[in-house]
Amino acid sequence: MCGPENPGAASRNDQPRSLQNLCRQFTRGVSLTRSASGRVLLSMAFNVDLHVHSLASGDSDAGPEDLVLQAIETGLHGIAFTEHYSYEASEPAELLAEKYKGKIVVLRGTEVSAKDGHCLVFGVDTDRLLSLYMPMAEVVAIVNRHGGVVIPSHPYRGVNSIGDTLKTMKGICALEGYNGCNAHAFNVRAIETAAALRLPFTGGSDAHDYMDVGLCYTSFAEPVTRENLVERLKSGNYRGIDTRKISRFPFF
Ligand SMILES: [Zn+2]
Ligand SMILES: [Zn+2]
Questions:
Q1: What is the pTM of this model?
Q2: How far is the CA of 2 from the centre of ligand 2 (A)?
Q3: Which of 13, 177, 196, 241 has the fewest CB atoms within 10 Å, i.e. is most exposed?
């Protein structure tokens, strides 16, 4: 099953209280620590930035190794390279995963450009399975059939975003709730929608600069490895976190 049990639907009328309650529910049993770089992290959790772009994406200046080093400095347990369009583009992550084994888990996915918006895909080689600008519903069907997962990224940014179409789409694993490049209001809408659809929500920095790594991340209740990433994402046992100062939630 994909998604937590009954996370509670939030209506637009009673937020932010309902959002606060929702977030408290996801953070029960964890406490806060501050990393060497000053970033607040949830302890007793496994924290992964699930959305990062290196220069291989074509719109980022960040070298892959600089991104990994920043993730370590920030105190994250994992980082996922999600280059635009291509799984092959994140090939350098293979070497980095080996080089920094024991310090951080280096993961790979793709940020797919579907016809109706961007989505993060994990667990499959998207280059073999998908073509550019396919309808997202087709992306979901193909990826699910091959054992992967699809998470619409920044679903309410307005550009390159699926928007309310996702409400009728079957088979989505989660929504990206906290995107580090988004205005807060877009993220709030994504989290409200995730709650209404009984879906979990992730967090990712969408970093295009190494300094942005970890601004948002996903806090998993259990350790994540390259082998169990898809299983963990399907479990729903995680939540997105926003460390940016614009967050209105009481613990940040
Ligand atoms: Zn995107
Ligand atoms: Zn992105």
A1: 0.84
A2: 23
A3: 13
